[in-house]
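Hi support team,

I submitted a single chain yesterday and got back a structure, but I'm not sure I'm reading the token output correctly. Could someone confirm the output below corresponds to the sequence I sent? I've pasted both exactly as they appear in my results page.

Thanks,
R.
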Amino acid sequence: MARQFQSNHNVVYSCQYHVVWCPKYRRRVLIDGVDVRLKTIIREVAAERRAEVIEMEVMPDHVHLLISVDPQFGIHRLVRLMKGRSSRLLRQEFPWLRSRLPTLWTNSYFVATVGGAPLAVIKQYIENQKRV
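Hi R., thanks for writing in. Yes, this is the structure output for that exact sequence:
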């Protein structure tokens, strides 16, 4: 996979991140349509913020993303927007989530830059999560 650069008004960048986050208490609630709707919400937020979702996998109890984002916007702001909007919308659209959890997501998440590893390897790792 050839390295691709993006730019904004004053920065040329190539910043890819592997991000993982979980529902509160690591409950297995990302099922029965919640997973499909979550993927849609994540893609919408990414598109609004000019971020690129390179790979995504939603497991019943956690989310894996390989994403490229403008370093001036920041991965922390993008993750906060994705978790915030998805929590609000999913709890509105799937009322059973409100009865199972006080909040949808934990406060924490994992993020690692993938500059040192070939993107194809990280992408394959995320694709293979369902098979584990």
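A quick pointer for reading it: The radius of gyration is 15 Å. Let us know if anything else looks off.

Best,
Support desk
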